[in-house]
Amino acid sequence: MNDKVIQRIDGALKQINGIQDKIDGVSFEKFLNDSMIMDIISFRLIQLGEKMIKLEQLLKGKYPKLPWYQARIMRNIIVHDYENANPKIIYDTATKDIGDLKQCFLRIKDDIKHISENSLTTKRLLIRPWDDMDVEELYALASNEEIAKWCGWEPHKSISDSLFALHNFLEIKETYAICLKDSGTLVGSIGLILDSRLVKNSDECELGFWVGEQYQRNGYAFEAAKEVIRHAFEDLKMKTIWCSYFDGNEKSKDLQEKLGFKYIYTYKKCDDSNSQEERICHVNSLVRE
Fold it and tell me: Could you report the per-residue pLDDT of 217-234, keeping only the tens digit for each?
């Protein structure tokens, strides 16, 4: 998906650069009286609008403030009512708005590059760093009471709760959003905790994960965990990975056993919800062969 986005952004930037090259140094009076320049700029704005319509399907969820609607309107006016299109609006778009849009697309390319360089992939999943743009999808998943119960925290009550979680718990090293590779849809979270109470040495870490209730029973947690375990052992040179689950969470117990984790001990801990309930927690470990 990232390759498709980059390709389409490059197509949009090509049109923007063509517009900027042609309009550079051209006054509104000259633009108004030079039909060739006006036609070229209008044609490139149509092409840019076409590119943005395709990009809107892929990026609007994460970049809602880009002028998606305005680009569509501009494209439609020029295509369907060119004779009555306002030359001043076309000129201002080409000389002012286009520059801001270019910078937005360049920032998006940088974001995608950062994600690609710090992501893991499987056949179906993109396991990538979290971003503030994920907040609405995170809230939709983390407001679920069943998920919160087994993770040991309060269900998110608002977007602000999710933003707080992003800033304090998720946007950290070795913590990832689990996304469907084809659509980019957020389905859960997974991470390697390097400083938990279970970790005793620098070559140890704790694996934590959850998948949204509506995305369970698809094998996503297992697929993501297998890849993150590989990353921990091969890339980070970990020797031991710890993992735990609350008593009664049979899904997590079964999944950890399927991944090869072995039972080590049981203890009582207070969860992170407002009740601070003391709960039984079972601890497993996986040792590098």
Answer: 999 999 999 999 999 999
pLDDT reading at 1 higher than 80: no
Is 198:206 a contact under the CB 8 Å cutoff?
yes
Residue that terminates a domain, selected from 70, 101, 117: 117
**pTM of the complete model:** 0.71
* Of 278, 244, 245, 272, the residue nearest 168 (C-alpha): 272
Picking from 7, 80, 23, 78, the residue whose alpha carbon sits closest to that of residue 49 is 78
Residues 51 and 71 in one domain: yes
- Distance set, CA 99 to CA 19, 24, 77, 108, 210 (Å): 10, 12, 21, 15, 41
Decide: 165 and 141 in contact? Cβ < 8 Å. Answer: no
- Domain hosting residue 186, numbered range: 120-287
